Amino acid sequence: MEAVYIHIPFCNKICSYCDFPKVLHIDSFVDEYLSALQREIEWCYDGERITSIYVGGGSPSSLTKKERIKLFRILEIFNRTPDCEYTFEINPQDIDESLLDDIVAGGVNRVSIGIESFDPDNLSILEREADFKDIEAKLKLLRNRGIININLDLMYAIPGEKISTLKKDISKLLKLEPTHISTYSLIIEDHTKLKINDTQYISEDIDRRMYDTICDKLERNGFEHYEVSNFAKPGYRSRHNLNYWNNGEYYGFGLGAAGYKDAFRYENTKNLHEYIAHNFRLTENLLTYKDQMDNELMLGLRKLEGIDVKEFLIKYGQKIEDVYPIKELIEKKDLIYKDNHLYINPNKIYVMNEILLKLL
Amino acid sequence: MDREHIRNFSIIAHIDHGKSTLADRILELTGAVDKHDMKDQLLDNMDLERERGITIKLNAVELKYRYNNEEYILHLIDTPGHVDFSYEVSRSLAACEGAILIVDAAQGIEAQTLANLYLALNNDLIIIPVINKIDLPNADIPKVKNELINILGFREEDIILCSGKTGEGVKDLLDAIITRITPPKKSDTTETKALIFDSYFDSYRGVIASVRIFSGEIRKGERIKMMATNAEYEVVELGVLTPKVKTLDRLVEGQVGWINASIKTIDTVKVGDTITTVKNAAKEPLPGYQPMKPMVYSGLFPVEPNKFEPLKEALEKLKLNDASLVFEPETSEALGFGFRCGFLGLLHMEIIEERITREFGIDIIATSPSVIYEVLLTNGDQIYVDSPTKMPDRAKIAEIREPFITTNIFVPAEYIGAIMELCQDKRGIYKSIDYIDENRVNIHYDLPLSEIVYDFFDRLKSSTKGYASFDYELIGYKAQDLVKMDILINGETVDALSLIVHRDFAYQRGKKIVSNLKDIIPRQLFLVPIQASIGSKVIARESISPMRKNVLAKCYGGDVSRKRKLLEKQKEGKKRMKMVGSVEVPPEAFLAVLKTEK
């Protein structure tokens, strides 16, 4: 056990596409919520050394100073390794000296900022704001405080978006010199404002062209494409997220958080009142051996370098080729087996579900 | 009950002319059913019949009616109205001495009225012409009377006016049944002979046979023999339908009823066979029926391969009371194991398919229907081909002949142009137009049956705003310039998609089919060409672009379980796909050949 996810479900504003558990920031709830969070952590955390913490949301940066200080005090409980990756999700609008004081004092060394787009049309559909100049200035403040590991989110395939719009977004993003870029095509999830308004997906062909554009541009600017939707400068891959894709175990604390420990996958309630009443768990499922292996495949093949076949053998006591019909797929060049790694043909990573369906 | 007081009759009518409602009224008036027990269209037993408002399977009920202070027994044997089921009609007519011909007071006579009337006349039945629905505000009684007199040759004084809805005139009709229809003929033998005109399978009691006793009698507990199969059984119970099940001690000459002899093997009871008793055995069976030859063939394949056996059982059970259904095992490279089935017509096919799905819970893929071709080979042999896949090599064929029909298309005169255009499109040969009155005509064309199978009804309906009524009669085979067209998906010929087309129409059809397939088959990981070809010559081509995206865009810690479920769901969706080479093809694709609208 090495990774911890903390969910802060409060926001000052709700985006049209968001399906994470979240509520508008109401002061009275936050304090009770943080107390419940503390209780959950105390009950469950077994004191292992922690190599990554990720505080996400919602908008963790929407907390007031007082709440923030309480949160960091709660998170002090974790036995962090000296090189622990400690990520905090931030809205650019929320960055000020006071926030920086607290996160630096709390030990945060990586920041993830959801920019998504700079294009006014895109932003209006997503119901978000992003001002390039402002963000540029805010990033400077971060770097001045020693936080140089910065992830920026980029969203594409937004209804009406053109390739030229995306190219502009990418250029601006690169100009901000992040160490990491997470990017994904818009998903119209159930119960989001977009879904309710019957928003339609952009065509499959344009979506793919956009993806190819992103991969091409980012790789040419020194980013390594290491997961379907993630790019990093050398040495800056997200340790926290890699743990997910390595099918590693992790704690998930907070409203709607999910965790994976001792072969159990669990999910917390998404009802704030239930959570505050300390009824944390919604479901708990013991995974069979096969489930674990299936997940290993579904997650591991998201990485461009794929699955370490020797580690698979050590972990499950079985050769991957004895469990899954990979031979045929290798012949068809859907999968590649090289240097003890099994990975998806990079040309087919964007249709990898089709390949997974043949394996699982 | 003596023979003189029995009347056996059926009702023949065009769809929607109110046959079932009138039958309900007769049941009510004869006290067979209490008014409060009445549910609409009592004779239509199957859900499918009630939903579609048509009668598929015949039904026989026994009614009591007093006339001149004497009690009579009436056997009402119901008949289906649609042309596809004229076989069923002939079966029921064989058990009758008379028929009521119903014509709608607003619609007048229609194509199917004619067909059924001719069948009744061929069976030497006494016909009572009835104008029904006289209560309708748009009823035109003088006009319909004229049609009956001028076109069908009835006498005015014989025509009975009635309304199944209000009950007006129904008593006159019942009286006419007694006075005009003759009692069953006295048989010239005392041997026991009962004609099986229908049968059905009851899961508790086994096979129940519907019979008309032509001579002798059958008693409960007696040993009976099926003359065609020599199988012997003991009668467990017998009786009539009133329409409730009523058990009796015996069925006598002239009576129509049912027999339960605890028969478990479906194929020993053949519709058209004669039942006799061991004690009073007949030497010769009754003439029986000529089963109609199936005209339309289609492959039926279970969507799930393990449903082959259940599909076989379903077909056997359906065949029990539908001797016209024929089937034999067929293997398709694309669809696996299934059955090549022969049907009387398209409606018959549709109904069988729907019953398999609905009553037996088996999902099936039906391949596009084909007619039966007469093929003259170069070596002088003549063979019959019921499936494009069975068409011999082109070099061995001297001539292909296909079945032709002649039409009765009843339509308001303003649609003559539309009908002629449609029939020309369908390779029709113009014969004549009869004027029924100044506004309505009966159009006669000779058409290849295969063109009727392919989208004729839909086009007829849309080009006449639904005003046309259509019926046809087979007239024989004609040699035509026909070719086999193959459909190739990713370079592989898909046997289940092959079809026979007229050479002049091949290009147009081929284009349509490949374009339909392009819309139906989802993208694959690779480019999939779809071609239509005659021999080795490709005449139409489309291609399906490779799939560009199928990925879980993001997948982090909180998503794992949900994304797994998403994948499981996609996998479930793939299960219904049929593999054609390495291409996943959805079942709907196999009917793409038929689709014309986009």
Explain this structure:
The complex is a heterodimer of chains A (360) and B (598). Chain A is α/β, with parallel strands linked by helices and 360 residues long. Chain A folds into two domains: 3-244, Aldolase class I (TIM Barrel), CATH 3.20.20; 303-360, no CATH class. In chain A, 40% of the residues lie in helices and 24% in strands. Chain A has 15 helices and 17 strands. In chain A, strand 9 (224-227) and strand 10 (230-232) form a beta hairpin. The mean pLDDT of chain A is 95. With 598 residues, chain B is an alpha+beta fold. Chain B is 24% helix and 35% strand. Chain B contains 13 helices and 34 strands. In chain B, a hairpin with a 2-residue loop joins strand 28 (482-489) and strand 29 (492-493). In chain B, helix 3 (86-94) runs parallel beside helix 4. The longest helix of chain B has 18 residues, at 503-520. The radius of gyration of chain B is 27 Å and the shape is globular. Chain A binds chain B through residues 3, 5, 20, 182, 184-185, 187, 204-205, 207-208, 211, 228-229, 241, 244-245, 250, 252, 256-260, 265, 267, 285, 294-295, 298-299, 302, 334, 348-354, 356-357, 360, and chain B through 523, 525, 545, 547-561, 563-564, 567, 570-571, 574.
